[in-house]
Design a protein that fits this description.
mainly beta
Length: 131
């Protein structure tokens, strides 16, 4: 299965600071400017700066909570995330280390702030509602 993402504009990343230990926060702040691509084949990005917010707006993904309706223009998807024992050795696609679900990777039922825009045989095109 191949996924293709086309993005034009500013891409905001968020980290859940309360879930980080005291050593991780400065590591994230220091590493962020060095991130210049996403994905195995590269999606080149340019760092523009950092800021801290008390809460995220509806433009960000968020975990789905059972019993909570999915807002209009959004949809649910299972996203692959870091597990509790994630390590570079286990997540490096060139490593021979075994990757275990629930250990190195976890799957999170997530609300995505975009809806289906177009679809056909073998593809689904999603778009943010405000675009």
């Amino acid at each position: 299965m191949r996924d293709l993402v086309h993005w034009r504009g500013v891409l905001h990343l968020a980290f859940d600071v309360p879930s980080c230990d005291a050593e991780t926060i400065p590591l994230l702040i220091g590493a962020a400017p060095a991130i210049n691509y996403f994905g195995k084949r590269g999606g080149f990005v340019q760092y523009l700066g950092a800021r801290r917010l008390d809460a995220l707006d509806a433009a960000f993904t968020r975990p789905f909570r059972e019993g909570t309706p999915v807002p209009p223009g959004c949809h649910r998807a299972m996203l692959d995330d870091f597990g509790p024992a994630a390590s570079f050795a286990a997540l490096d696609s060139f490593s021979r280390s075994e990757i275990r679900s629930g250990v190195h990777r976890s799957f999170v039922d997530t609300v995505l702030p975009m809806g289906v825009y177009n679809f056909g045989a073998g593809f689904v095109h999603h778009r943010r509602a405000d675009v």
